[in-house]
Amino acid sequence: MAALKNPMRFAALCGRLRIPHPAVTRDPVRDRRGWLLKRDGGSGGSHVRAATAGKAPPGAYFQQRVAGSAHALSFLADGRNLSVVGITAQWSDPSPIRPYRYGGAVEEARDAPPLLATSVVEAMTRAARAIVAETGLRGLASADILVEGESWWLTEINPRPGATLDVLDRRARPLLSAHIAASLGTLVTLDPPPMDAAAAQICYATTNYAPVPSLCWPEHVRDRPRAGSSVARGAPLCTIVATGRDADAARTTLRERAERLRARLDIEGTQR
User: Fold this and answer.
1) Alpha helix locations (H) across 7-156?
2) 187-204 pLDDT per residue, tens
3) Tens of pLDDT along 7-34?
4) Calpha distance 188→200 (Å, rounded)
5) Apex CA 66: angle with CA 61 and CA 72, to 5°?
6) DSSP class of residue 57?
7) What is the pTM of this model?
8) What whole-number distance in Å separates Cα of residue 122 and Cα of residue 125?
9) Would strands 82-92 and 49-50 be described as parallel, antiparallel, or unpaired?
């Protein structure tokens, strides 16, 4: 954890293993337009901002901007080796004050064209395997990567089950069981994923829910807020999941379900 979540140590590790990784520093940067400000150990993208003047604030650092689309390689590690669980594409759901807020992720259908070129996936896998061997990482983890054509940059390793769990956990054997086995040093063989694509997104509150109305939540809604609790505008309200014949279809269903849910919440809140 210390080697992977400390940004300076992680950058040094990537440099030693010759893994492409954006430059990081805590010192003032000359051209702030080319840098981002991130919080040590941050997750979900809400902590990411444009770089500020001067040194990075305590507990934060600057990371150089690189071009590319966001993807993640999820894997099981036993401290020495790894087995790939899946590849996902990710997107942001920006707000006025959180331009890089995490939006959701999608896994493409099994027989659809892959999300990434084989050469990129192989290079990413080699890099993750080298990090596992170097750090002794165990369990279900993921590597966040920015990809542009054949070029890619590893931005971070999440040494834990991540947000893509809702997308990837669709096999007969639960990923939690495989995570425990890997943490104990055994890589289990996973069944192939289902044929269809799957996607999940965070549904952020577009208004203040105080209190959250009592609902009979649809099965495709997870992380449901308790009736009577408060959810502030812009805070995560719930998670919505969907499947489809391909990634585009799954994401379309997500948008439709989110719109229906927000409309229903507005109606229920008005009736109260």
Assistant:
1) 7-17, 118-135
2) 999 998 899 999 999 999
3) 999 999 999 999 999 999 999 999 999 9
4) 25
5) 90
6) P
7) 0.91
8) 5
9) unpaired
What distance in Å separates the CA atoms of residue 80 and residue 185, rounded to the nearest whole number? 9
CA gyration radius, the chain = 20
Q: Are residues 266 and 244 in the same domain?
A: yes
Spatial contact of 164 and 91, defined as CB atoms under 8 Å apart:
no
Same domain, 172 and 48: yes
Domain count, the chain: 2
- Between CA 138 and CA 135 the distance in angstroms is 9
Is 105 in contact with 163 (CB distance < 8 Å)? yes
Would 190 be classed as within a structural domain?
A: no
C-alpha closest to that of 108 among 170, 43, 45: 170
Q: For the residues of 108-147, what is the DSSP string, one character each?
A: --TTSPPSS-HHHHHHHHHHHHHHHHHHT-EEEEEEEEEE
- Secondary structure letter of residue 55 according to DSSP: S
Question: Same domain, yes or no, for 144 and 264?
Answer: no
Give the HSE-up count for residue 262: Cα atoms under 13 Å, Cβ half-sphere. 17
Based on the fold, state whether residues 136 and 233 are members of the same structural domain: no
Tell me, yes or no, whether 144 and 230 share the same domain. no
Q: How far apart are CA 92 and CA 44, in angstroms?
A: 9
> How many residues are listed for the chain in this entry?
272
